[in-house]
């Protein structure tokens, strides 16, 4: 159903835009998508993730722009970040009156506006879709239909002191709605920026978001991107993030998955120089019949680089987790240090996890390790806490909190760390049955 509608609506979509210079690229991307079709469980990369629930529904490709978001609803999404900047998209459209932007000396535009601005044509020629994979059905679909999202370029040696929180909100939609959001972040030499991204569906109708983010981090620059995934049970998110780093740069992507019916995170790091540091951390806490799938890849193409992956999962009810982490070390990438760990706790008999850390190493002077664990709470530790007068419920919650906590250690934004801690505590109290 969805496949036919995607093809059927594309000409109408192109006519609604003014991005004529992208028409050929969009049509070529749609043709690639049409040849591939949506992934099925026969595809190795989607072996454990069944997308039928998503692809057999019908969606509206042209969301209604009108909304009635209240201040109270918006306030409930914030982290208490009075000193942050924030950018609010509602039903795909950037709303300045719901945003707070004080950043200076940077280029910030909504993606749609940037595409229509002649002076940014060269930027899009040099960056747009240059690292996003054309081998993925979802990235091709996004290129064919992308319109919503933001473009941010941080010039050389500019340090943005305030974190920027990006809100994607869907509300007042009478039909199931399909968003193809697109983000482009360019952090030039010596610059620094921190982004928080969150998606929120306020309707009982289903929302499918197919998001693609491209991050370019130049020498001695630092880019941190934090994904806060805590949406409702009528939300599907396919998130595709690609980060290309130049020498002496540092990029972090933290992914906190607490909500959403089905979430698939595809994360791809590309090293394009030496002395690069890449950090990937994730915490997943889900229950009922939710599914969260993390697929990561780090391409070590140069010597003297480091990457760290630390993913923790807590699964209850009939929830299902997937982790597939890949590290590729090229033959010239000597002195590589790559660490990858995925630890999981199953809280019920119906919960499942499929985990597969992978290393492909073609260099001989490297330090690479990977591992995964799947288990239940330690009975000795439970006994130790209960012997000191702590109830079973509190003891289990404390152990689970401690289990997940180390994946938050490199969050520099204190309000975000507090928010994650609160969500962690809430999830442990609400979703765990004792």
UniProtKB/TrEMBL annotation:
Q: Which residues form the SUF system FeS cluster assembly SufBD core domain?
A: 174-403
The SUF system FeS cluster assembly SufBD N-terminal domain extends over 7-166
Superkingdom of source: Bacteria
Name the InterPro entries for this protein.
Fe-S_cluster_assembly_SufBD, SUF_FeS_clus_asmbl_SufBD_core, SUF_FeS_clus_asmbl_SufBD_sf, SUF_FeS_clus_asmbl_SufD, SufBD_N
What residue ranges carry the coiled-coil annotation?
Answer: none
The Swiss-Prot or TrEMBL record describes its family as follows: Belongs to the iron-sulfur cluster assembly SufBD family.
What is this protein called in UniProt?
Fe-S cluster assembly protein SufD
Query: What organism is this sequence from?
Result: Chryseobacterium salviniae
Q: Which gene encodes it?
A: sufD
């Amino acid at each position: 159903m969805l496949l036919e509608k995607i093809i059927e609506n594309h000409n109408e979509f192109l006519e609604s835009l003014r991005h004529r210079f992208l028409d050929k690229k969009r049509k070529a991307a749609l043709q690639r998508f049409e040849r591939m079709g949506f992934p099925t469980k026969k595809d190795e990369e989607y072996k454990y993730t069944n997308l039928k629930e998503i692809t057999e529904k019908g969606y509206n490709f042209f969301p209604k722009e009108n909304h009635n978001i209240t201040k109270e609803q918006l306030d409930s999404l914030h982290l208490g970040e009075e000193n942050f900047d924030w950018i609010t998209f509602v039903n795909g459209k950037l709303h300045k009156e719901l945003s707070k932007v004080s950043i200076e000396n940077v280029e910030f535009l909504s993606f749609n506006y940037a595409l229509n601005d002649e002076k940014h044509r060269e930027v899009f020629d040099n960056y747009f879709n240059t690292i996003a994979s054309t081998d993925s059905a979802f990235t091709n679909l996004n290129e064919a239909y992308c319109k919503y999202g933001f473009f941010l370029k941080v010039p050389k040696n500019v340090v943005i002191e305030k974190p920027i929180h990006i809100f994607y909100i869907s509300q007042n939609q009478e039909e199931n709605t399909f968003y193809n959001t697109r983000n482009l972040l360019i952090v030039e030499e010596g610059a620094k920026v921190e982004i928080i991204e969150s998606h929120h569906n306020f309707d009982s109708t289903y929302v499918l978001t197919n998001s693609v983010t491209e991050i370019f981090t130049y020498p001695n620059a630092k880019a941190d991107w934090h994904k806060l995934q805590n949406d409702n049970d009528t939300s599907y998110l396919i998130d595709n993030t690609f980060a290309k780093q130049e020498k002496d740069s540092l990029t972090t992507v933290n992914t906190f998955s607490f909500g959403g019916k089905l979430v698939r995170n595809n994360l791809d790091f590309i090293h394009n120089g030496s002395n690069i540091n890449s950090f990937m951390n994730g915490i997943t806490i889900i229950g009922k019949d939710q599914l969260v799938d993390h697929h990561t890849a780090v391409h070590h193409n140069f010597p003297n680089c480091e990457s760290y992956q630390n993913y923790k999962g807590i699964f209850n009810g009939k929830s299902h987790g997937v982790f597939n982490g890949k590290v590729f070390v090229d033959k010239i990438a000597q002195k590589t240090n790559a660490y990858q760990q995925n630890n999981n706790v199953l809280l019920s008999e119906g919960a499942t996890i499929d985990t597969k850390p992978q290393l492909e190493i073609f260099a001989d002077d490297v330090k690479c390790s990977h591992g995964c664990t799947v288990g239940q709470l330690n009975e000795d530790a439970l006994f130790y806490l209960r012997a000191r007068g702590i109830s079973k419920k509190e003891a289990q919650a404390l152990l689970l909190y401690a289990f997940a906590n180390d994946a938050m250690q490199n969050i520099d934004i204190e309000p975000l760390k507090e928010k994650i801690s609160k969500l962690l505590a809430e999830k442990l109290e609400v979703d765990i049955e004792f």
